[in-house]
Fold this protein.
Amino acid sequence: MNSLIKLVISGTMGAGKTSAIEAISGIPPIRTDVAISDGESLRPGKTTTTVAMDYGELALDEDQVLVIFGTPGQERYDFMCKILVKGALGMLLLIDLSAEDPERDLTYYLSLYESQLHNTPCVIGLTHEDLVRNFNATRIYEIIKGFGLNLPVILLDARSVADVTTAIEILLAQAEEFEIREAVA
Amino acid sequence: MAKQRRTFTCIGLGDVEISRLNLLLKFFSSTLDVDWTAEHDGSESQICMVDLDQAVGEEFWRTGAADYGDRIAVTDSIRDGIEWNVLRPWHRSDKNGLVAVLNRLAAHRLSSVLSKPAVVLQPQLHAIQGSLNLAAVIADCERELAGIRLRFVKLPDIWLNGARLTYSTTCGPNLILDAFRSKSAMLESAERTREFPAGEERPLAQLKWIHAISTAHATDEWGGRYFRLKRWPDFASLPHDLVHLRLAASMLRQPMMLGPLAKILNATIEDAVAFCAGVECLELLEEHPRDTYAPPPRPATTHPVVQEGAAPKSQLLRKVLTALYARQA
């Protein structure tokens, strides 16, 4: 019987969740994008958004498959995000730096997942840095610290297999650290 | 007649060692022709005192100087950028040796060395010997917002842009890391420039990190001290091994001593020191007083199961990475 394990990619609309799944999925991702119609903040060229969840798979061996869920980027679907992240191996939280208020977005998502982030490996990937003139890294760290967390933050190109792989490497390092801590507790 | 005062640069020595050296110099000042002071960044920057335990040009090792072991050598400037002219190795207990070396420098060598047109030395720039001094050049570049072109033996040129805090070159970061680690790349010269090649600019922090982790050496100065990471480094832009990530995850949680930490993670002390040198140059490392914290946890011999009946997350994530590496290969 195949056993499934899951990885969740969450974050703001347009941050690159679907691209990140495409980067590492072993199958063509199943997308639930529809044309944007409600005037939510857009980037030129971005015409669709995910309304349910994106889905990708990566076969680990004959018996095990990693399923990769991309959460919808719109806040009205947030109830799904909390369900998806339960029991996940880890979460990649993508924040679009070129959005209107990335600090507010980060605060929002940290609040949303606050209860899970203390024991679920999580990496924050900041995307679209190339579209931003000045980005305040210090402020990002202050926000994270404000939640009593010390999460890894990387600048990430969601289309890059290497960048997404680095994020998963960091998830592994965190998972090991959690386990060592638990072992000596 | 008052004696001339001069300072010389010490490379590879810590503050404590430099203080001791200066005490020694003071004690023996009556036997010296010049009043020398050892500093991290002395005015006579073409004269370097190098701790052989830390690092020295590979040429030096090749010529058998490694046999001297725990000794200090005084070297003069490199004229062609590669060759090390070792005047005389000096054992720490050999006080007369030090005096002789310094007097010889003052009397014979110094004038000839300084009178030669400096191939590598520009105003305000450090003399550059081997990869060891690259850190000093980068520091100069940042401080002065300067543009600097670095020429290497066996590595493409690197342009540093201090104003933009970037660097550019034609080879990838992993190639630079390999070249520095294998000591195959020797820094030949550094000259100021206002022209930069077109193409990709990378963060200067990346080059600092590469240099630091490839040249760090495990020495006593890292022992018995507690270190903590201020925050996660941006590993997406830093060439790294998995062990760096594991060290980062642990050092974020609590201050750790490097020896026990390496044991917990089944890493080597060299890995831990290299990582700390890397994050220190990124200003992400902080030291904590040793009596403030409880000893670090005992090593875990096996990875525990997080959820009953389920494989630990780390084991599963490792499988994920194996699959991803296989796809990228």
Summary: The interface with chain A takes residues 231-232, 234-237, 240, 242, 245-246, 248-250, 252-253, 264-265, 297-298, 300, 303-304, 306, 312-314, 316-325, 327-328 of chain B (CB under 8 Å). Confidence is low (pLDDT under 50) at residues 45-97, 104-132, 295-308 of chain B. DSSP finds ten helices and 13 strands in chain B.
